[in-house]
Queue: 2 jobs
Job 1
Amino acid sequence: MTDLQTRSATAAPEASPAREPESRPVAARRARSVVKHLLLIAASLLMIYPLLWLLVSSFRPTDVIFRTPGLWLNDLFTENYTGGWYALGSPFSHYLVNSLLVVVGAVVGNLVSCSLAAYAFARLKFRLRTLWFSIMLVTIMLPIHVVVVPQYIIFNLLGWVNTFIPLVLPKFLATDAFFVFLMVQFIRGIPRELDEAARIDGCGHWRIFTRVMLPLMGPALATSAIFTIIWTWSDFFTPLIYLTDPEKYTVPLALRSFLDATSGSNWGAMFAMSIVSLVPLFLVFLFGQRFLIRGIATTGIK
Amino acid sequence: MSAISELSHLKVSKARTPEEKAARRKENSRDNKAGYLFLLPWLVGLVVITIGPMIASLYLSFTDYSLIQAPQWSGVDNYVRMLEDDRLHNSLRVTFVYVFVSVPLQLVVALAIALLLNEGMKGLSFYRSIFYLPSMLGGSVAIALLWRQLFGTDGLVNQVLRLLGVDATIGWIADPGYALWTIILLHVWTFGSPMVIFLAGLRQIPSMYYEAASVDGASRWSRFVKITLPLLSPIIFFNLVLQVIGAFQSFTQAFVVSNGTGGPSDSTMFYTLYLYLRGFGQFQMGYAAAMAWLLVVIVGALTAVNFLLSKYWVFYDD
């Protein structure tokens, strides 16, 4: 590829061709553009303001929070963080570790199970494939509430309530079918010649999968991992059902318990720990944005 | 291609000559075992985590079950009680208002911003990041807690209103007339992800269509109505279907904003929240299972209606 082609190829997604009629005066066009930017900047500010205010307010005493709409910080009040960290039954690090364990389990589970299923759907021909594939697509849209009651009963009988097993085990069984679909889409884009070459070289399906497919599936795996992290980290419903022992709380449950705890009106501490809980998400956003945007655009994950 | 268009385009394999069929069968039998081995975790999950529990919950919906004793068969009692349950009817009303207001509103905002951003402007990726950020954080408890503060009596919203000279003393969260609307606003605030999908869709529209229309002297508005909307309609449809399904299951925001009560006066009692309270608050598992099945029927019916209506407005280029 020549330099020019490379440049236009990489620039293409950022700038779509001008659609203005040629006759429009330059000045008018420029004015339009300025107005548009002003509008967008105003909209961005409006969107982002609550988040900035949350961050700034987490460094203010509670009474100041409730009378200061601005973002100017006179002095850094860090007691929200030190106090909030120890405001609940365990130090907040305990809940962070709990959440981390669940997230790691969920990511590993989703990547392993979904990539296996995706390889089968995208590359192997087996009986009833179309039927299974359409069932898989339908389960993407199935409300979880219809399975949650019996699931709870089963996990309760097995004595797994108040453990992380109900949160992690389903991920190893590819129940997040969205990712199966995402990976199927991705594998379909990989040239078949690659696995056929490996097949001719005498590779079985397992070797083709581990040696050829998985290394090529990097972007799809990254997108799936990132979405799993975000969703699992924020998930509230499943932990709410399965984790009743405060020692086992994940971060969202711990945060919510601020509303019940003696510190119910301690908004400063609650804000501080909210920020702590959002930091991992923000980091994922910062470093994984590329994969996020691509993942959403190609599969329409919410 | 999206999951939905995939579903509606599933093809029946074409008839082949006998030799081809024989060759295929041979190939198939080689892949059959491997296929099912690779699919095994998913199949186990399908049976144990999805279909099994679905059947079990259908059975439970005809029983009385409180986890302590074995389920007692009670026929259609649960369903009859649902007909008479005013709180359930209210929760349906609340959820329908939420879905039918917040989903279209969010999609319109997402589309409008996507159109603005798509006109080949500088700073696209910067704006896109800013607009997308709330979608990523919006589902978290932290943001729901923040919302409790923002719309409280002395929250940020009222502080700003007072700065503007409005005598704002209303507690939005505590007022049954407004509480639901704060949650609707939260949903609209997360318009970033449909916006990203729209942006990707707008890129797919060949610019020659617009150029041709410009040459013919088409106005900005008619280009939008005659070119952009029809060509984008499959993506709008896709977003609509998924957002309706998702919005019907909203839970976290209503739970945290109302602190698990669905209050004030049940004004934020979403259907799923009521289901949770019945099932996991009062341990009426049979009733909760019946409610879950009604949810499936409603979501399925809405999706079917969406698909039926799509014939009249969704335009497929191929």
Job 2
Amino acid sequence: MYKEIRLSGFGGQGIGLAGVLLGRAAALHGGLEAVMTQAYGPEARGGASSANLIIGDEQIDYPFVQEPDILVAMSQEAYAKFRPTAKAAAQVLIDGDLVTPFPTDVVCAIPATRLAEGLGRRIVANVIMLGFFTRQTGFLSREAVEQSLTESLGPKLVPLNLKAFAAGYEYAVGAHTGAPLHGNVVLCEEIENLGHQTTLYTLDAERYCHLDWISALWCFICHGFLFGTLAGTAAEP
Amino acid sequence: MHGDEACAEGAIAAGCRFFGGYPITPSTEIAERFAQRMPELGGVFIQMEDELASIAAVLGASAAGARAMTATSGPGLSLMLENLGLGVMLELPCVIVDIQRGSPSTGLPTMAGQSDVMQARWGSHGDYSIIAYAPWSPQEAFDLTVLSFNMADRFRTPVLLLGDEVIGHMVERVVIPPAEEIPRWERKRPKTPPPAAGVYHSFEPDPEDLIPPLPHAGEGYRVHFTGLTHDERGYPDMSADTHHALVTRLNAKIQRYTEEIIRLEEYAMDDARLVVVSFGCTARSARRAVREARARGIPVGLLRLVSLWPFPEAVLRELGKRMDAFIVAEMNLGQVRLEVERCIGRPAWGVHHAGGEMIHPEKILAAIVAAAM
């Protein structure tokens, strides 16, 4: 196993911490080798931030991520900046409320920030994403990451973060049972079936049965509006 | 933990309780870690006014008996070099960490370089020998910092740790052994009590290994230290004979023990016909390149210079007789290649980059393929 992973978002979301937690889970509790590098320079809160990990079962030589196999994007800017750096068939995990993916991209989405607000602390969105990541990528056990969390954070912060982790982890499970989807987001279990193909998500009736009716209606309205606009544009001289 | 933190923790594990420094990217995290850790351990962290003062404070702390160190990068090392020579002349053990960045001058503050190799060896004026190690991982940043302190005390001399920005800022697993498993070689200390009258001969070499015992300030010994050429009492002695004897001994006490000091790591060398020589972060790319070349059936091995100074002349001379080709990969324009060629007596292939980004394994692989043809 050899995975190049890029976690990205905006400065202040705790992307670096998520990277450290993930790396520790792999290197200290997952029986794997891990290296993390971060862009180093005049970074500021709000700018695009990333943490880059290579996780493998052999000692890692070259420590820099070149073409991620897995990309996590928690902001639109980070997605736009880093999606082109990842493999075309990369596994892409996004905060679905904050990122609108390219129309041709296949992604797994979780409203991490909204869920974090639901837990009362927006700052745990990174840990919710970590839970989602753990479940979706499947190469680390839930226990390994939970142990990493417990060891790395101050004792007072542990219960909330374990809760956040569980929310992300269980959301991934929930997605299989028809949780709300956005735009061209594909159900997580379908990613594997798609293999290396990155397809344009097309509107079809079959897919709408996975959506609740409000989302479905909203999609129809949006698309209707879009097609209407396009048709209008095409008619212009 | 990242390489800079691991380096600071290595120093602390080795018993270092004095850090005098002037923060500079990419070594700043070492100073930060010390600033955080020293108060809880009863040690001293001083942010000095500049690098000149930093190393002066470190030498003073060493004379007082502390394991002491400073950390800097190329531009700071340039400023420390004058007093590095003083450390050599006064034979004061200390560790100077240089997390290299793109140079010369201010260069690339946030990006890696490996171009202080010759500065480390020859930077201060005069003839002297130096010990330098080059970690290739955060784990080694820990281990080699411990070793540097031990070597400094063993040979009563400053030791350099030449890291680089990649290793300094890279996060990897670091295993810190229990305190009782951290090796500690003590300084050679006076065997006799302070003399009733007159000064203690703090530069009188032990005939066995040329290293004089070092009394610490406050122990009752009257000592004299000067950067001028001095006799065994430490008093200035402006004679050519004394000077020649002193400088020769300062070199000999290290050159005589090169085998004890040098650390090398071999990878896939058993049946190798070609050898890649590399160090620090570049050696990671070199190992990947060697693996890939081996997969293509090229009999190539890696000689990693864990220690840079003293240079492993005997090993390279011997390899020079057996190997078809040498490839030196380093993030500078040929500083180690020069040494390798001096030892093997013929040209070597060079994979060089002036710094800023790590040399990619592909470039080293291309050189291996070319050299194998």
